[in-house]
């Protein structure tokens, strides 16, 4: 292995990578460094992809679930957007789910990926700041006749702060509260929608809150994680289940045999 060449020094900086940065640094050598990246992509296509299809059944098509207001796995539901509660739900996500997320999914933070101009170096970034401020100033004076210029200058700073970070390369991430655009209450009834077929959610993680009581308000029901043969059936009113949405936690809604089961679902960080 040593014959492969220059090993990284184990720090975060790694010039050999596209981003020049390794999040969790290791002493390593990359396929790119030794000219084997195209071969590796072939291996992925020929051997890993079929394995992936076998192991992660349903992963590919369920990915489309939340795009364009379309539900690939339709449920009997009502969305927060429909009942004017989107802002309230966003508040709950930020205030209550965010801190839980940090405890449960250690090391995971909600981020937005933003385009940045890191490779331009100090001067380039300075010029970009100046130009963007000037454009915003001109636009403000033009559109508002000079009123509120200071207010807009404030916005300009916020914008450029998010969009230009000199020490990164091309793309960067900013930490944000958890975000979800699919937030809905699901209703299960034996004569309507008793169960939900196996699927993945289009979320980094999903929260599933019990809105009524098993064995009292309804019989049957629950959420089954198929790969782990693990069913969560004795849910508690108001308590929530948090599980990864994509890839690993293929799951289904178990049949409700009598009564009505209600749950609140939110696909966090789609
Ligand atoms: O019935 C359940 O608990 C699962 C619901 C679910 O998976 C979903 O709505 O995406
Ligand atoms: Fe689901």
From TrEMBL:
Swiss-Prot/TrEMBL cofactor(s): L-ascorbate
Stretches that traverse the bilayer: 120-141
Region (Disordered): 1-20
Domain named Fe2OG dioxygenase: residues: 176-270
Keyword annotations: Dioxygenase, Iron, Membrane, Metal-binding, Oxidoreductase, Signal, Transmembrane, Transmembrane helix
Taxonomic superkingdom: Eukaryota
Biased composition (Basic and acidic residues): 11-20
Family matches, as Pfam families: 2OG-FeII_Oxy
PANTHER family membership: PROCOLLAGEN-LYSINE,2-OXOGLUTARATE 5-DIOXYGENASE, PROCOLLAGEN-LYSINE,2-OXOGLUTARATE 5-DIOXYGENASE/GLYCOSYLTRANSFERASE 25 FAMILY MEMBER
Protein name: Fe2OG dioxygenase domain-containing protein
